[in-house]
Amino acid sequence: MTAPVLDKTDYDVLNVVALKKMASAPTIVTDTGLAADDVTTVLTGLSEQGLVVVAGDAALPTNEAEPALAAAAAVYYADLRGDADLIELVDRFETVNAQFLTTMSSWQQIDVGGRKVANDHSDSEYDDKVITRLDKLIARLGPLLDALAGHDARFAGYPRRFAAAMELIDAGQHDLVSSPTKDSVHNVWFEFHEDLLRTLGRERTE
Amino acid sequence: MADVLAEGYNVFDTKKSPSGTVKYLSSPADVITLIQSGKLQEHILLVRGGTTTFLAPALSMGAIGVITMSGAPESHLGILSREFQTPCVMTAYLTSSDSRYSVGATPESHFVEIAEQLDGKKVRLDCTDDEVGRIVALD
Predict the structure, then answer these.
(1) pLDDT-based confidence at A96, cuts 50/70/90?
(2) What pLDDT score was predicted for residue B51?
(3) What residues of chain A lie within 8 A of the CB of B50, using their CB?
(4) How far is CA A165 from CA A100, A159, A182, in A?
(5) Is B51 in CB contact (< 8 Å) with chain A?
(6) What are the angstrom distances between the C-alpha of A194 and each of A8, A31, A51, A152, A187?
(7) Structural domain includes residue B138
(8) Is B14 helix (H, G, I), strand (E, B) or coil?
(9) What residue ranges do the domains of chain A occupy?
(10) What whole-number distance in Å separates Cα of residue B32 and Cα of residue B35?
(11) Structurally, how many domains does chain B consist of?
């Protein structure tokens, strides 16, 4: 028997948990815009369905989460997947994504005589160049994010999160570039990529 | 001389040389079970690829070392391992086998062989080289 398709609120909450791999209720509230009580109720329901495990104050996706999300995305985003203009933008994203990963690595490591060594961030001119490159790459996502937000308002959250991270970086908080524990540019980009792939029903490539 | 069981791309060079029993993680449930066991730091984690995004909670909870069977140091997992300073060897291959990973053309048997040979082995990661990370037998 086929499991019923997740309702859209359940989808949005489970999607955040799956994107973050581990998410607390306050984080889900921030990302979804839902009320705290509603998030608690939805998480309880998802736990009862075996789609999340709650450990401490965080929810983690189970093995069944991804198939449930994939099945629901196929229904909710059937129209989007048939939007030829949007798909053209998506295909261009793969190039931008490759450039982003290379740029992020160049933030973490610098080339010294052909050897990669940790960037100690003592060269502010180098760091500024990388940050400028990241800013340009984020700007190149604009048309795709706008097109996606036209189908689902959830995608309007990404430009806001990128802007918030870049604002803090410009103010000197450079850990917002790649910190895995903050809403850094890398985390936002990674979540967007995952969200995009799920929305389109595509697999991540190596 | 130490017995090098496998080697691959070293994601970043570090003097950290974690040791533990290799644990193959094939799904989000495996990660949850390991975290809940409280024994995360007894294991070197083996996963299939650089796109294995479900490993992230283990890294944030203090995983000591990671081995992947595919993927590049520039991948999301590579970026995360550098951020957490978790030693990581990517696209590892068995030194006793001729089988190598090739994007889009790797038989399932390649991954099965690595998992079978490494899972449960006591090893140490040697990540001191700029390019090559080594999985060294401790048994």
Answers:
(1) very high
(2) 67
(3) 206
(4) 16, 10, 9
(5) yes
(6) 18, 15, 18, 15, 11
(7) no
(8) coil
(9) 8-76, 80-200
(10) 5
(11) 1
Q: Which residue has the tokens 């929305």?
A: A199
- Chain B residue numbers touching A194 (CB-CB < 8 A): 53
Partners of B24 in the β-ladder: B46
- Opening angle at CA A68, ends A66 and A72, nearest 5: 115
- B79 occurs within a structural domain: yes
What is the DSSP secondary structure assignment for residue A179, as one 8-state letter?
A: -
The answer as to whether B117 is a domain residue is yes
* Per-residue pLDDT reduced to its tens digit, A165-177: 999 999 999 999 9
CB B31 within 8 A of CB B25: yes
Size of interface A-B (CB pairs under 8 A): 77
Positive or negative torsion for Cα B14, B19, B22, B25: negative
The answer to whether A77 and A42 are in contact (CB under 8 A) is no
- Which chain B residues touch A181 with a CB distance below 8 Å? 60
- Domain of B69? 4-121
> Angle between the A142-151 and A185-200 helix axes, to the nearest 10 degrees?
50
| SS3 state of residue B122 | strand
Burial of B22 (0-12, 13-18, 19+ CB in 10 A): buried
Q: How many CB atoms lie within 10 A of CB A139?
A: 11
Residue B81: which CATH number?
Answer: 3.50.30.10
Q: Mean pLDDT throughout A79-93?
A: 94
Yes or no, beta carbons of B76 and A205 under 8 Å apart: no
ipTM given for this complex: 0.89
Please give the structure tokens belonging to residue A137: 């790459």
Q: What is the pLDDT of residue B139?
A: 75
CATH of the domain spanning A8-76? 1.10.10.10
| B102, closest residue in chain A (CA to CA) | A206
